[in-house]
Design a protein that fits this description.
single chain, 397 residues, alpha/beta, seven-stranded parallel β-sheet, 14 helices, globular
């Protein structure tokens, strides 16, 4: 079988080739390469020919990740009186992070390939928008980061320029920062003065109040990867619960990875869903009781969540009003505390924390839920005001 696969690769292979402003699928047959430009011509034609509504802002996400931030920003901008158009890659469009977003909060969503985005950005159509908001300031290409403004070349400017969202503060554009054109998802201080503007899109759509399940439902969203989360902490915790005779719980895991990495003796308590479209992920979130963040202060790669970035789990906690289980080292940087979350002080107390959640009665849970909802309203209010301020400041530059 191994030899057969090796022979097949020598005869036939597929790959992706990336260059500034475009991507191509590469098919190699017997050493001969055939390149096929990735483009979505009909959608490109639409955005170039459609009329731009007055007072419009365009949001662009060129990565196949991070699109879950767009619904919240779209709502904020609509609340501020702007019309909103959106560009995302076809892969993200198909996964549909906008499935819960009421149509009144946006005008049109365009699924465009890199080449199409380049063609649009080079057109005079750009100048008809008040602003363009880049949902990711850095693009992930070939496992490296490249600035949006390096990848896309000869681009036009909207009336009041570009505003960017930076997901990795260690890769911030200092010129844009000086111009007050950079937003961040958390409220982190990377320097004494002139920090990015805090603006968290804590909204995916309207949700219904949740009552705690009789069988406590924990949920984890994210790849089975120690760089992102300490899954060993969870697996050991479940094993200890089983050995202690605790059984009225389940854990839903959503994200890339393989079930074979989950120990067999705990699989009956785990509902491994793999990677899901946004609608299915949102449905699972609404049924869950607690979000497990699984951040480990002893893992140096996790420390970026208190220094240079934030976690998608925090955004989901805000957007779906789900109390999260989180280590205290990370909690205070992201508006989590003992009143709105379940906070533990060291990894040795993780299993005890799970038991605390399982034993929590409906009154205790409702108090936690109410406090978290108040925190979310505070985050949304601050974010909306900050977004309004950053936009208005550009009108007077």
């Amino acid at each position: 079988m191994i030899k057969l696969k090796s022979i097949r690769k020598k005869i036939f292979s597929r790959s992706m080739e990336t260059s500034p402003g475009k991507e191509a699928n590469v098919l190699t047959i017997l050493g001969l390469k055939f390149k096929f430009l990735k483009t979505n011509k009909e959608e490109l034609k639409q955005i170039l020919n459609n009329n731009i509504l007055p007072n419009s802002i365009l949001i662009i996400e060129a990565n196949t990740c991070h699109s879950e931030c767009i619904p919240g920003y779209s709502k904020y901008l609509s609340d501020l009186g702007y019309n909103v158009d959106i560009i995302v890659p076809p892969e993200s469009y198909k996964e549909n992070p906008f499935v819960m977003l009421p149509a009144k909060y946006y005008n049109k969503i365009y699924p465009l390939e890199m080449y199409d985005i380049q063609q649009f950005l080079s057109s005079d159509k750009v100048c008809q928008y008040k602003y363009i908001i880049l949902n990711s300031n850095n693009l992930i290409k070939d496992r490296n980061f490249i600035s949006f403004f390096e990848f896309f070349q000869n681009i036009k400017k909207p009336q009041y320029g570009y505003i960017v969202l930076e997901h990795r503060l260690d890769k911030i554009n200092q010129e844009l920062l000086k111009e007050n054109r950079v937003m961040q998802l958390a409220n982190l201080k990377i320097q004494d003065e002139n920090n990015p503007v805090f603006c968290n899109p804590a909204y995916f759509g309207d949700i219904h109040p949740h009552k705690k399940n009789k069988v406590t439902n924990f949920i984890v969203i994210g790849e089975l990867n120690p760089i992102r989360r300490n899954y060993s902490l969870l697996f050991n915790g479940i094993n200890e619960l089983i050995q202690s005779g605790v059984s009225n719980f389940k854990v839903t895991i959503i994200g890339a990875g393989k079930k074979k990495y989950i120990p067999r003796n705990i699989r009956n308590y785990i509902n491994f869903k793999g990677r899901l479209p946004y609608k299915d992920m949102y449905d699972e979130l609404q049924k869950a009781d607690f979000i497990l963040t699984l951040l480990d202060p002893e893992n140096t790669t996790h420390l970026r969540y208190i220094k240079t970035g934030t976690s998608g789990s925090f955004l989901l906690s805000y957007g779906f009003c789900k109390p999260c289980i989180i280590h205290e080292k990370f909690a205070r940087y992201h508006y989590f505390n003992h009143e709105n979350s379940v906070v533990y002080d060291n990894n040795e107390n993780f299993t005890k924390t799970l038991i605390q959640c399982i034993n929590m009665d409906s009154i205790q849970y409702d108090n936690l839920y109410t406090n978290l909802n108040n925190t979310i309203n505070f985050i949304r209010k601050c974010s909306l005001e900050n977004l309004e301020n950053i936009l208005n400041s550009k009108k007077t530059d």
